[in-house]
Every structure is written in C-alpha cells, then in structure tokens.
Amino acid sequence: MLRARQQPLHPIAWWSWAGSLAIAASRTTNLLLLGLILAVVAWVVTTSRGSSPWARSFGALLRLGLFVVVIRLLIQVLFGDRVPGDTWFVLPSVPLPHWAAGVTIGGAVTAQAVIGALCQGAQIAVILACFGAANSLASSFRLLRCVPAGLYEVAVAVTVAISFTPQVVLSIARVRDARRLRGRATTGLRGWRGLAVPVLDGALERSVALAASMDARGFGRRPTSPRRRRLTAGATLGGLVGLGTGLFEVLDSGSASGVGLAVIVFGGALVIGGMAASSHGSRSRYRPDRWLGAEWAVLGAGLVAVAGVVAAGGSDPSALTQPLYPLALPAVPISALAGVLLAALPSVIAPTSALGRARLQEAVA
Amino acid sequence: MRPEARSTAAVRLIAAAVLAALASAAAWGSSGLAASGASPLRQHPERSCAVPPHLAKGQIVVAVVVDFGGVDAKVLVSCVTARTGETGAEVLQAQGRATGYPTPRYDESGLLCAIDGYPTSGCGAQSGGHYAYWAYWHGGKRWRYANDGPGEWTVARGDVEGWRFEPDGSASPSDPPPRAASSASGLETSAATVRGATTTTSTADGAGPIASAGTGSSTRPILFFACLALIVLLGAGALIRARRAHGHVT
Question: Of all helices (H) and strands (E), which one includes residue B239?
C-alpha cells in the first residue's frame, strides 16, 4: 500500500527489517547467500536513505566489516587452527611446549582454513552491514521516541546505546574537517591515529550529554507514585533480564529447551506487564510516527528473508554452509535466495528520500 | 587400567577433541612434507600393525581405532604407514583413503565433523547439554582423552590413535573411550578378536559408515552464475547510486 507522505518510515519497521536480514545472515556461511544479503541491503540503503548526517553509517560499518574480514584472515593465517586440507603455503612455525596446546604460530596454511575463515569473517561483516543499514535508514532519535514507557527509567543508558553509532559517524566527519583545516593528515595510519581517540571520546560524550539533557527535561516522567514507578521499573528490568537469559539459553543449546522457553515466557509476561502498568496515564506526542501499510510491508519483507533461509536450512542444512571437504562452489538454495531477494522490496515500498525532498521543496515554494 | 590412572584422566579438562584440528606447531619437517600435498601414506597391505621388514627409514606404522559408538559395537582398526612427525589429522586422512570411505569432514572453524562419512550431516550437534561428536583419544597403557586437536598432535612410533563417536557425549574426559585395546601390543595380541569385529560391517542399523559422503554438490553452474550476476548487478547499482548521491551533495 503506497501513500503520499513526507514522513519517513517508522524506525521500528527499518530496525526489524535490518534485524531480520542480520538473523538470516547469522544462519549461513554460504558466500553466495551472504553476498546477496549484502547487495540487497546496500541497494535498499542507497535507494531509501535520507540526506541526514547519520545516513553515512552504512558506509562506515561496511568499512568496519571489511576490517573484520582482514583481521580474521590474518589471525587464521598466523595463529589459526591448523585445519587440514589442501596446503597453499607453509609459514615458518615455532614449536610450542606441550602445555600450550591449542596455540600455534605459523605452519601449513590450507585452502580450507582460509576459505572457512573468509566465510566466518564475511558473516560478521554482513551482520555489521545490516546494523549499519538500520542506523542509516532510521533516525536514532525517532527510534528513541518509540522506546516503551517502561524503559524511560533507564533512559540514559538506552539513549547512549542507541545514539552511539550515529554519533560516531557524525564525530568522524567533524574531526576529519577539523584536522583538514589544521593541515594534518586525514588518511593513512597517521590520520587514523589522530582520529580514533577524539572520535570515540566525542561520540560517547555527546551521547551522554544528549541522555543527560533528556533526563534533565523530565523525559518520560509521569506523575505517578514513586512506589508504583519502582514496581513497574523493577518488573520491566527483571523481565528483560529473563528474556535475555532465556534467549541465550535457547540460542546457545540450538534447541528450544524447556527451561529456556519457560524463562522467555515468564520474562516476556513481566515486560508486558511492566510496560502496560507504566504506560497508563496520558502523554501527548508531537507528530507521532504512524504504523501503516508500508511499515507492515517492510516488516514482512524482512520476515520473508528469514523464513526463506530457515526453510532452506530445514530441507538441506548443508546448502547453507560452504562445502569445504571437498572444496566446491556453494550450493544455490532457491528458497533462501528468493526470500532474501524479496527483502529488497522496501526500496520500492518506502518513500524515497529524493521524492520526499521534492515534495518538501514544493511545499516550501 | 589402574584406578589412579583413571583419576588423572579426569584432570584433563580441555575438550580438545571437540575443537579438533586445532593448530599444529608441526615443528620440524613440516615444510617439505606438508607442501608435497600428495601424502605418502597408505594402508599397510596386511592387516597387522607389526612393523613390516620393508619399511623405509623414517616411516612408522600407526594404528587407528575408529569406534562408531553405536550399540552395534562397530569398531574399525586400521594400520596406516606414516612418517614420523606427521599429524593425527594426516593419519586420519590416510585411514579414510585406505579404507575407501570418505575422508574426514571438518567445518569452517576446523572442528572435526565426520569420519568415514559418519555422521552424514551436522557437526558436534548439541542437544540439551550433550554433544554428538567425535572424541579424540591417544593410546598407550590406557586411553587418554586428547588435550590437543589432530592437526596439532604429531605421531611417533608405536602410537595408537583412537576415535570414538559419542552420540550423547559431555565433551569431557568422562566420555567413554574407544572399545579396543589401547596399546599397539594389545591390538597385536588380541588381533584375532578385535579384527574379527573390525572387518565386519554392520548393515543392520544406520550407524555404520556410508560409502559416499553425499556432500550435495547439486550446484548447477548456470544457476550459480546467474545468482552471482544478480549480486554484482545489485551491488554495482548501489555503488553508482551512492556515488551519484555523494556527488550531488558535495
């Protein structure tokens, strides 16, 4: 359902879309599938991102992903497990004493070791790119407005957590400009050395300052009794901890164990209860983000990708992994590829930034 | 098997067999030997781990015990000729070639998934707190749970390499060891009984090795390259759009 609107898509729609693609990526080491996920994410980002400063988050996290892949490969080659297979080259190795079992320096580097490491690195890089896409597509400040009322008590932490990545991207641009004006290096190793500390420092400081100012202005405060507030905050926090441990239990064991599911259900009930109790009372919103057809479509597109990958894994688990013994081209799991390709639909559904800008200019003129 | 020996075995905590194929310092001689690619290993013609008279200098015979861990008690004992200093992984590879079964399968992290094509899929599959994995053991007076991976362990004269599939293992030295004698001499003396058990293939249940790994290489090249082209197209489109937007802004 398309509609004319100047307002960007609901941030939660973008975050759930990107999260779904990250989940899909986390279930596969098939380079073909990972490549398609990355291409789809990049396409949607370039077609649908706005002109906001944090729209460059995607590029920054793409570079970070590349860095991760390089580091993963380097560690594999220098200190990695001596995975047996077809030897490519042999590095001089240092014999280590027996108690240092599991640690090696140098040795035979096999094709299997390098390609396996490449697949694992690429998986992390694609997940990072999905995170960058979410930051690029949705304003973190709009996302902050959707934080449920039950979490306002931890507003400072939530604000810092949500706004850190876009602040880093803003900070990089600012420090770069400052260094360029002073005639210092902005590229290469020297440039990076001068960049890293002020960027991290500045981004964290600005995030904390934002959180503090929001707190000072009574962000999310409501006239309720302190006892009730403590109760709802405790329920929400306890429920979130339960949800986290339950999810960890289920994801770690790879199967829905009874205890994990019970903890998830209990935690979920606590969170819902806490939020319901705290959301009573009226609060007005200025130009609220609405959840309409386009949002449902974007959410659905992400879920289709996950469903496709899960279906492909259910019918043939080896289709989602890179075949190493023997080395071969990755399989072509049709359902997974179709699902991921459908996840590119938001580039058509979402109001494009160019369109939005044109409308805005018309309105101004 | 002395009781105190068993208690010291419990001290060995690291489930290195789970993280099989860890590193090999590979130490001396790794360069020439590993680079040669084609391994000089082969199964000794007669099924005895006794040192044959025509063994070349620097070569040894290593016994490899592969216990499929099923209720059916299927245990394969192979004698593999190796060079001193070769890794357990290379010996295992040679065992696979010698027996005609698929060679070992590892996953991306180097974890050993399958020996002789068993199990056909999955890798150290976890259910509850248990793992279905191949445990790595070193022979000797008794079976010792390996503290290292097969890619790291180098074999020496008289070694016995033990592998047992633990369908419900705890990934610790408390998992049961292979059901065969742990020493080369033990394998010799009980050769008749052990080898009687080894050579029989259990066809009743599916616990035995399978002839073909079935690695699902049903990849159709046309489909693969069509998909690759799609990725490149999408990526290039995104890149061009990004460039254009960048140029527009600045």
Answer: helix B221-249
- Give pLDDT, residue B77: 85
Q: Number of A:B CB contacts under 8 A?
A: 195
Are residues B30 and A46, on separate chains, in Cβ contact within 8 Å? no
Higher pLDDT, A320 or A4: A320
Comparing CA positions, the residue from B240, B245, B92 lying closest to residue B163 is B92
Q: Is B109 on the interface with A (CB under 8 A)?
A: yes
The C-alpha angle with vertex A135 and arms to A333 and B231, in degrees rounded to 5, equals 30
**Interchain CB contact of B5 with A (< 8 Å):** no
Measured distance CA(A240)–CA(A255) in Å, rounded = 21
Residue A1 has pLDDT above 50, yes or no: no
Virtual torsion, Cα A329, A335, A336, A342, nearest 10 deg: 130
To the nearest whole Å, the CA of B53 is away from the closest chain A CA by 30
Q: How crowded is the C-beta side of A24, counted as CA atoms within 13 Å?
A: 38
**What is the end-to-end Cα distance of chain B in Å, rounded?**
78
> Which A residues, 43 through 82, put their C-beta within 8 Å of a C-beta on chain B?
43, 45-47, 51, 59, 79-82
Q: Nearest C-alpha of chain B: how many angstroms from A42?
A: 6
- How many C-beta atoms surround the C-beta of residue A148 within 10 A? 15
B110 touches chain A (CB under 8 A): yes
What is the percent of chain B where pLDDT is above 70?
62
Q: Considering only CA atoms, which of A206, A65, A182 is closest in space to residue A124?
A: A65
- Assess contact for B12 and B147: CB atoms under 8 A: yes
- Stretch (H or E) spanning B168: strand B160-169
Helix extents (H) in B113-216: 184-189, 191-199
Put simply, whether B234 touches A (Cβ < 8 Å) is yes
Nearest to A137 by CA among A73, A56, A197: A56
Using the beta-carbon criterion (under 8 Å), do B105 and A325 form an inter-chain contact?
yes
- d(C-alpha A313, C-alpha A333), whole Å: 9
A41 membership: H or E segment, kind and range: helix A31-48
**Is B11 part of the contact surface with chain A (CB cutoff 8 Å)?**
no
Tens digits of per-residue pLDDT, B33-67? 232 333 333 333 334 566 666 777 778 888 888 88
Task: Return the amino acid letter for A11.
Answer: P
pLDDT of residue B71: 64
The residue of chain A nearest to residue B148, with distances taken between CA atoms, is A101
- pTM for the model stands at 0.73
